[in-house]
Amino acid sequence: MANNPTLSQLARSPVLVLAFGFGSGLSAKAPGTIGTIAAIPLWWLMAQLPLNAYLAIVVISALAGIIICGQAAKTLGVHDHGGIVWDEFVGFWIAMIALPVTWTSLLLGFALFRLFDIFKPWPISWLDKHVSGGLGIMVDDIVAGLAAAAVIAALGTLGLI
Predict the structure, then answer these.
(1) What is the pTM for the complete model shown?
(2) Where are the chain's structural domains?
C-alpha cells in the first residue's frame, strides 16, 4: 500500500478508517485540524453521557488508539503519518472532559488543544521525539489534551470562563 491511502483503501480497512478519522485525515491541508473538527460531533454525543461513561469511552479509545495507530503506521510504512488523526480525536476529547456543550467551551477547547498539539511545548515535544510505535503516536496528543484541560480548569478556577 502506498504511503497515502485512497478512500477505497480506507473503506476496506477498519483500522485505517479509524486511524484516518473516518476519512478526515485524507485532507491535503491541515489533516490534524480537520481530524479535530471531525471529532466534534462525536464529542457532542459523548457529552450527553454521564461523566463516568464519557471517561470510559475516552480511556478505551486511547488504549485502542495505541493499537489502531500502531497498526496503521505499520501498514503505511510511515511512523505517525500526517493522516493518522485518531490521536487528535482522543486528545480533543480529553481537552473537553466535563465541559458544557457551549460555543465558548468548544472554541476554547479546540483552540487550546490545537495550540498544544501544533507547538508541542515540553514535555509534549520530548514525548513526540522519544516514544515510538502506536504509543508514541498517541501520547503527545493525550498530553496535549491534558494540558488544554488544565488550562481550561485554571481559567475556570480564576473565574475567567
Answers:
(1) 0.94
(2) 7-157
